[in-house]
Amino acid sequence: MPSSADLVLKGGRVFAGGGSRPAAVAVTGGRVQAVTADIEGHIGRNTQVVDLEGGLLMPGFQDAHNHAAFAGVQLLRCDLSGEADAAGYLRKVAAYAAAHREAAWIQGGGWSMDAFPGGVPTRQMLDEIVPDRPVMLTNRDGHGAWVNTEALRRAGIDRDTSDPGDGRIEREPDGTPGGVLQEGAMGLISVPAATREEGRLGLLAAQRYLFSLGVTAWQDANIGTYPGNSDNFDTYQAAAESGELRARVVGALWWDRERGLEQIPELLERRHAAHGERFRATTVKIMLDGIAENFTASLLEPYLDACGCPTANEGLSFIEPRLLEEAVTRLDAEGFQIHFHALGDRAVRQALDGLAAARDVNGPGDNRHHLAHLQLVHPDDLGRFAEVGAAANIQALWAAHEPQMDELTIPFLGPDRSRLQYPFGDLLRAGARLVAGSDWSVSSPDPLAAIHVAVNRAQYGRDQKPFYPEQSLTLAQAMTAYTEGSAWINHLDAVTGTVEVGKYADLAVLDRDPFAGPPEEIGAAHVRRTYVEGRLVHSEDPQ
Question: Which architecture, in CATH terms, is 7-60+500-539?
Fold first, then answer.
């Protein structure tokens, strides 16, 4: 006779491997005790029994690339992510400023470039509603900031200020700064950091939100002192020590591109300090380029102009290739996982070159390096992911037609290169391991919304032409990337990522089985319950 379980979930289906099957799950001591069709023997007098009501039980989602600590603080500030146009942004800023008259600065973000002509808002828009206090609002991509005249004045940024090597000041015809700072130019303005308490509350708000979406673990892709925020390393450490951090988090320590190999001892110290059950800083984040919409993604061939002619601009490479290869080789030898921001095809190639150089010196290992974003991958580089043992970290929600893609990207890449965007199917066919993340707060952290796009190459609920559908994934492939794949990249695959006996009961319960319906309805599913080690951390049901 099996022993009685603490928790039994029955009356639905379980995601396993290539699809779903009828089964029930028993949980004891925070771990999966049984996955079976015959569950009654595990139900005792004190067993909590949950009816899945025909829904799908699956491993908790794991987000392999987000900025949860930063996104949580943004939720507490002037959060523009729920607005759709310039008028809505300005209303939100005005309302926030009026409600926070004590704030010396107005900070926040989440605006979308496609809401403004050419993707660039102006300082005068903000001056009209907040003329007397500095305003700095990052865009949804985090690669640019919208500022008012007072913020520029306080920073001493004027027509004589040179662009930094890793960024650009958008300018008016006479050279006066126009109100947007791209990439490294954001660093020209020093904004007040979030307080320790604001950082704590922001992280807890982020955790609640991610739990509501079934996310039980993630990799925070920028651990360090983020502009305008307290050091989120300390924020995570404190939450882990206090027990407030319930999720499992891997921190990617920020590689300072203004420095070189001398920063490695500091990274080693941080890794040693953060090695707990809930928070480990075992990864280094190296940002190689920017984004396509502001022409800072690093390309093998130049961007086009509005007329379709080649320009002289091939984007930005933030780290010189030889230094990159030396840094990657050293970090790999020290046992760090490397998490690259590589969006353009030149950045992807440089990351793969760095990993190939490291493998030549160090030999193959189990650090599980990964390249995130992968908007453009040259066909010659698809097979190299498997060759160097690198995973492809996809943000599937972006692989769809939307104004930012159709108006600010495709015309400046041209039709031939545009077909190479987000080649999820080609990467998988070439042998790459797929893992999945959201890049929240850049975009929604909802895994089901992203999975819908990965399968349909269109956003749920919108009448859209599929975005190069030959690159679509099956539902099982997309679900696996967001569970088992991301658990592997976080070195958590031995204890999470699948619903198996002995693994932690980190689980999500969907209101339906997406495998039972048409692909066009995947996005209609939502999370009803989330468990971490068998303990309920989110429920939409009345308690």
Answer: Roll (2.30)
